[in-house]
Fold this protein.
Amino acid sequence: MTKRIPSPHRPRVLAPIERVAGLDYDVLDELLGYSLRRAQVAIFHSFYEATRGLGVTPPRFTAMVVVGANPGISQSTLGSVLGIARSGAMTLTDWFEARGWVERRRAPSDGRAWGLHLTPRGEKLVAGMKRRVAEGDLKRAASLTAKERRELLRLLGKLAG
Amino acid sequence: MTKRIPSPHRPRVLAPIERVAGLDYDVLDELLGYSLRRAQVAIFHSFYEATRGLGVTPPRFTAMVVVGANPGISQSTLGSVLGIARSGAMTLTDWFEARGWVERRRAPSDGRAWGLHLTPRGEKLVAGMKRRVAEGDLKRAASLTAKERRELLRLLGKLAG
DNA sequence: CCAGATTGTAATGGTCTATAACAGTCCCGC
DNA sequence: GCGGGACTGTTATAGACCATTACAATCTGG
C-alpha cells in the first residue's frame, strides 16, 4: 500500500462529450435521451465556468435561486422543486448554512417547518451567479439564433410538462 | 441500533419533477440548464418503463447500442462515447460480461486492447430494448408534433456540437 | 532500440441521493 | 376537544456512479 495524497474536494467536472469520428451511433441520434444528455453536458460545462471556485453545482444553483425568489420556502418544497428527497434538501440546506448563504428561520404558521432565507451575503452571491450563468448560457447557445433558442426552451418545456 | 433490511439493488428511479404551483421560478425558466434537466428526467422516466427489470441505465443502454453497432470497439473508445473515464468503461464492461451480454476478445492488431462484442443473448436483448426505448421515447414526445420533435433533435444537436 | 504514449486494470475515495425510522407538529372528522 | 393519519425535519445507513492514481504490458515513432 503506497501513500496517497487525498484528492481535493472538487465539484464534478464533466468534460464535453466529443463525437467519435467514424463510429456508428445507430439509433442514438434519433433518441431524445442521448441528445438531451449531450446537450446537458455541454451546458454544464459553461455553467461550471460561470461558477468556478464556488463549489456550486446545478442543483445548488437552482436551490439558491428558488430560495431567493421565494423567501420562507420550506425544505420539503425545495426538495420538490429539485426533484430530490427531503433528506437531500436538508443536506443541501446544511451546506448553504455552513457557508452563511442561507439561514433557517422558524416558520410562523407551522411549528414543524423551517423557512429558508438568503443572508445578505447569499443575496449578493446569487445575484452575481444569476448574471454569470445567464451569460454563459447565452454564450453556449451562440450557435443558435435567438428564435431557435426560444423555440428550444418551448419544446423542452412541452416535453417536461 | 435497530435491525434493518438491506435495500434491494435497484436502478435509480427519478420521479418526474412536478412544477410547484404558486412558486416563483425566477430566471430558471429562461435558462437552458434547468429546462434540459426537467426534460431529461421526464425522458428517463419513460426509459425506465421501457427497460423495467433489466437494471439497464441510460449509459448502459448507450453502451450496448454502440457495442452492437461497432463490434470490436475498445473499452477506451467506449468510454469516450459515454463521456466517462477508462476505469468506468471497465466497470461497465464487467457488468455486461457478468450477465453474458458482452464478451471481450483480444484485439488482433493491438495486444493491449480488448475488442468488445455482443453475445447472441446480448444481440437479442439490445434489439428488444432499442425497439421499446424508441417506442417510449415517441410516446413521451407525443405532446410534440413530428416536426417539432425533429426540430428539437436538431437544436439539441447544435447545442451539444 | 528506447522514450513516451496508450490500454486495461485495481484500489481507493468522494459525491450525490435514496430509504427507513423517529419525534414533533398539524389537520380533520367525529 | 381529541385521536388517527399525514406531514416536517432530522439522523443513520447504504448504494450507485464516477474520478483519480498508480502500475504493468504493449505499441509507436524517431
Summary: Residues 1, 4, 6-7, 9-12, 57, 59, 84-85, 87-88, 91, 110-113 of chain A lie near DNA strand C (CB under 10 Å from a C1'). Chain A touches chain B through 63 residues (CB under 8 Å). Chain A is about 55% helix and 5% strand.
